[in-house]
Specification:
By secondary structure, this protein is an alpha/beta fold. It contains 14 helices and 24 strands. Bound molecules: uridine-diphosphate-2(N-acetylglucosaminyl) butyric acid (EPU). Uridine-diphosphate-2(N-acetylglucosaminyl) butyric acid (EPU) binds next to helix 1, helix 5, helix 6 and helix 12.
Length: 416
């Protein structure tokens, strides 16, 4: 199993080009099922998760080809409606195929994802929303099964703001019969980007960027030709690395507004942030200051940056309080950071971080994608050498991480 060996203590300096966003690419890949034809997706990050999704599409009968970051998907020959457990359990976003399959074929057999390393992560809102649109869905042997479904427009109000449920229902509604109104939808840039892609293919969606979407079903969509938006979480992760290493990093190819909440917290902790049209330069302070963080749906501070922010606070002057209101159990990085000298007390979904002067290299284990990113950042700032085990988690969501960090001056090597 691959590990990362990182020798810390050097400021990261230079320019890094941010990749396309994993969480924007996956729903667009699912949306290719809505229209038979050849779809072109540009700026798709080469990651384990995009490869897994490509595999799901292939199993459904699509032809998929990567040419560098251009992904071509031919959905003309899709002849299966089954997404198997073996793939869905490795990547929950596979469930995105459910809405498009029901919309185009009236049938689907999609495995329930099951638990996640850091909590239950239910899909009840996806199912009740589709049921409200007339899909009679059964759970059979761990699979969500729908047959003879004719999706009809409906009004669906989400109790909780959910990225996944919003994109699922948007994809179902664009081909449904009549008008669908979605209330309390997610505003994450990934959701808005999907809406824009669907509109460009002929979908009729009003209210993008607001909490209420009105969608008039159309009978067919054109194939997709779209560019995936930049990865705001990758960008913010590099920004946090600058904050921890007294570094200066220019992030290129970004939309600064997409990670403004993270940038503001980094400024509060002492970073200097210069925002350009499609670039951001972050300069880390001599030592970060403690900050308090509460994760919220977009435009609030993202849960996907909670772990990396805890790592920043681990080194900060003073005590920080970090609360995750989206995922209560997403703290597997805490005991690993403690192995590097961090002083963090967990009280339910609240981490109280007492900043230390120095973190020390240690052997640690990655446990999920963002937890792994926080360990990498901590290792880059720590004195001595850190060996991070189980880095396959990182390969799910950070493209060419060692190469990008190496170009910024990090001493980082993949070993096995
Ligand atoms: N929720 C429900 N019922 C549902 C769906 C969600 O109660 O049917 C709850 C969740 O338990 C959570 C909240 O709603 O408390 C928000 O979850 P959401 O549905 O928004 O999460 P998701 O769609 O499963 C996406 C990202 C995650 C990111 C979350 C929150 C993708 C593929 N995944 O997940 O990204 O943490 O939104 O922003 O877009 C990551 O990239 O590391 C990652 C985990």
């Amino acid at each position: 199993m691959d590990k990362l060996r990182i020798s810390g203590g050097r400021p990261l300096e230079g320019t890094v080009r941010i990749s396309g966003a994993k969480n924007a690419a996956l729903p667009v890949m699912a949306a290719t099922l809505l229209a038979p034809g050849v779809h072109r997706l540009r700026n798709v990050p080469r990651l384990r998760d995009t490869q897994t999704f490509a595999r799901v599409l292939e199993l459904l009968g699509a032809k998929v080809a990567f040419e560098d970051h251009l992904l071509m998907i031919d959905t003309l020959g899709v002849n299966s409606v089954e997404a198997p457990y073996e793939l869905v359990k490795t990547m929950r976003a596979s469930i995105y195929v459910l809405g498009p399959l029901l919309a185009r074929f009236g049938r689907a057999r999609v495995s329930l994802p099951g638990g996640c390393a850091w909590g239950p992560r239910p899909v009840n809102l996806h199912l009740t929303g589709l049921q409200a649109m007339g899909a009679a869905l059964d759970i059979e042997h761990g699979y969500i099964v729908g047959n003879n479904v004719k999706l009809k427009g409906a009004t669906v109000g989400f109790d909780v703001v959910s990225v996944g449920a919003t994109v699922q229902l948007m994809m179902a509604a664009v081909l449904a019969d009549g008008q669908t109104v979605l209330e309390n939808v997610a505003l994450e840039p990934d959701v808005t980007a999907l809406g824009e892609v669907l509109i460009a293919c002929g979908a009729r969606i009003e209210g993008l960027g607001s909490r209420r979407l009105t969608i008039q079903g159309v009978s067919a969509l054109r194939p997709i030709d779209a560019t995936i938006i930049p990865d705001r979480i990758e960008a913010a992760t590099f920004a946090a690395a600058a904050a921890m290493t007294r570094g200066k990093i220019r992030l290129e190819g970004v939309v600064p507004d997409h990670f403004e909440a993270a940038l503001r917290k980094l400024e509060e902790s002492g970073c200097a942030v210069q925002r350009g049209a499609d670039s951001v330069t972050v300069t880390g302070p001599a030592r970060p200051q403690a900050v308090n963080v509460v994760t919220q749906p977009f435009p609030g501070f993202p849960t996907d940056m909670q772990a990396q922010m805890i790592a920043v606070c681990a080194l900060a002057g003073g005590t920080s309080v970090i609360e995750d209101t989206i995922y209560f159990d997403r703290f597997t990085h805490v005991p690993e950071l403690a192995r590097m000298g961090a002083r963090i007390e967990l009280k339910g979904n609240v981490a109280v971080v007492k900043g230390v002067d120095r973190l020390y290299g240690a052997q640690v284990m990655a446990t999920d994608l963002r937890a792994s990113a926080s360990l990498v950042n901590a290792a880059l700032a720590a004195q001595g050498e850190t060996l991070i085990d189980r880095i396959y988690h990182l390969d799910r969501g950070y493209e060419a991480l060692e190469k990008k960090l190496g170009a910024l001056g990090a001493q980082i090597r993949r070993v096995n």
